[in-house]
């Protein structure tokens, strides 16, 4: 196997730049979905249930996209066709979702429409996001992967800043932040429109500046034997076979992921209600104060993104991945728990800066550790399967949210405290992570013998 050459900073930048547009869409979703459904008329105790279907779709779609892209070689590339398809669907849904309460549906009809739109939005965003993770695994050598995923994390958080701050910025320039009962404010609707336009531009940029390896070059750099065109095509291992033979890294990092993504699901679901309660002293979703809190949640998530950008720059300075991974999650846990005691909106900046440290680590370190243990032959499939360690925790957390909230006193801020505890448990589990190299090559050898 030939070692992949070092790449310039700007080539690494171009590999991930499209993440900027994709993350704007993701930020708009994560900061505003609970606000949208609460405004339409959802019971706060049921908010977490609206988050079940998106990760459920993700756990089905992502492995299929990964496996399909492993087998795709055409003039548009290997991973890029799936970026284009995912982005196209996301743009359409971003224009429809915030209007769920404005189409003349009943409350129940608006909920169903919004639920289906959210399912397609989350699925399409993940479909557009996954190729960037695969491209780094495909084209960047082990020495530069930490830098490449840190660049990806930086662009991810820069996009988050735009998405999170869009509603409060539009409010500042005079666009209405209130709407008739059951409808979403124009600030949120226009933010989704702007995000859709930026996503289109970023996809065009990626399509122009990313050059994917042709098949022969890919095989050379990933130690894959060239197939004899006259020989019968070898049987490819199925997903269950790949799971059975997955490197230990896959499972140990997946354990940490379970606690991390459960925590952030509760952040996205309950921050709006928690901050409205603790800072604005309101639980009335139709009040102007609640919509003010909704805008401020965008600011807090933006502060989280700033903290994440700063911490992402510092992560490569740590030689030990496990140390910085664990430290990041502990800092995030402290940030979540501190929200219980803070009643000033500006003091919450400290909490969300700390939460940003955990987010930066979650975006960069799992993929750095995992892709180092994988060979190139089934990279896309494994990354698609690894998405299950993101989706499953969210499904479990969403299913349990409506049960846990009343058990924790009914205050949504208590769910943020629970999120902090989960992150600290995740930090403890980092000690079980097994960083390996060469294990995937042995796995491929074993699979070849079996097949």
Features:
451 residues, mainly alpha, disordered C terminus
Polypeptide structure, described:
The protein is mainly alpha-helical and 451 residues long. The chain has one domain (13-211, 239-450): MFS general substrate transporter like domains (Growth Hormone, Chain: A, Up-down Bundle). It is built from 17 helices and no strands. Helix 6 (142-172) runs antiparallel to helix 13 (348-372) and helix 10 runs antiparallel to helix 16. The radius of gyration is 22 Å and the shape is globular. It starts with 8 loop residues before the first helix and ends with a helix. The model is unreliable at 440-451 (pLDDT under 50).
The description of the largest β-sheet is:
none
Mean pLDDT: 85
**What is the CATH fold-level name?**
Growth Hormone, Chain: A
Write the CATH architecture name: Up-down Bundle
Radius of gyration: 22 Å
What's the number of helices? 17
What class do helices, strands and sheet pairing give?
mainly alpha
Q: What is the CATH superfamily classification?
A: MFS general substrate transporter like domains
Shape: globular
End-to-end Cα distance: 22 Å
CATH C-level label: Mainly Alpha
Number of strands: 0
Give helix % range.
Answer: over 70%
Number of domains: 1
Give the amount of beta strand, in percent.
under 5%
């Amino acid at each position: 196997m030939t070692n992949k050459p070092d790449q310039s900073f700007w080539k690494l930048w171009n590999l991930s730049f499209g993440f900027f547009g994709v993350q704007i869409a993701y930020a708009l979703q994560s900061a505003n979905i609970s606000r949208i459904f609460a405004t339409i008329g959802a019971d706060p105790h049921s908010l977490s249930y609206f988050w079940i279907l998106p990760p459920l779709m993700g756990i089905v779609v992502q492995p299929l996209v990964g496996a399909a892209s492993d087998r795709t070689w055409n003039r548009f590339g290997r991973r890029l066709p799936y970026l284009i398809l995912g982005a196209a669907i996301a743009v359409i849904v971003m224009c429809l979702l915030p209007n769920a309460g404005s189409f003349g549906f009943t409350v129940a009809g608006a909920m169903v429409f919004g639920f289906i739109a959210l399912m397609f939005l989350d699925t399409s965003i993940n479909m557009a996001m996954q190729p960037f993770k695969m491209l780094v695994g495909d084209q960047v050598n082990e020495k530069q992967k930490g830098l490449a995923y840190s660049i990806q994390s930086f662009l991810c958080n820069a996009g988050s800043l735009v998405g999170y701050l869009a509603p409060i910025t539009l409010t500042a320039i005079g666009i209405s932040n209130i709407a008739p009962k059951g409808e979403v404010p124009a600030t949120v609707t226009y933010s989704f429109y702007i995000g859709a336009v930026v996503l289109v531009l970023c996809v065009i940029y990626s399509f122009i500046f990313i050059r994917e390896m042709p098949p022969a070059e890919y095989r050379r750099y990933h130690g894959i034997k060239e197939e004899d065109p006259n020989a019968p095509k070898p049987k490819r291992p199925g997903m269950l076979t790949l799971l059975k033979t997955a490197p230990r890294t896959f499972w140990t990092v997946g354990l940490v992921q379970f606690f991390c993504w459960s925590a952030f699901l509760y952040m996205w679901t309950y921050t709006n209600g928690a901050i409205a309660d603790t800072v604005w002293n309101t639980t009335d979703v139709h009040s102007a104060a609640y919509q003010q809190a909704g805008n401020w949640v965008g600011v807090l998530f933006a502060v989280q993104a700033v903290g994440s950008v700063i911490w992402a720059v510092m992560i490569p300075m740590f030689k030990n991945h496990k140390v910085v991974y664990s430290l990041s999650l502990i800092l995030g846990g402290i940030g979540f728990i501190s929200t219980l005691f803070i009643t000033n909106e500006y003091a919450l900046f400290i909490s969300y800066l700390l939460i940003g440290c955990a987010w930066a680590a979650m975006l960069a370190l799992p993929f750095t550790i995992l892709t180092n243990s994988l060979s190139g032959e089934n990279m896309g499939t494994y990354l698609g399967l690894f998405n299950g360690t993101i989706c499953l925790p969210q499904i479990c957390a969403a299913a349990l949210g409506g049960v846990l909230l009343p058990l924790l006193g009914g205050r949504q801020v208590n769910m943020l405290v629970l999120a902090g505890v989960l992150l600290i448990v995740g930090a403890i589990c980092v000690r079980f992570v097994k960083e390996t190299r060469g294990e995937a090559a042995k796995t491929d050898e074993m699979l070849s013998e079996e097949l």
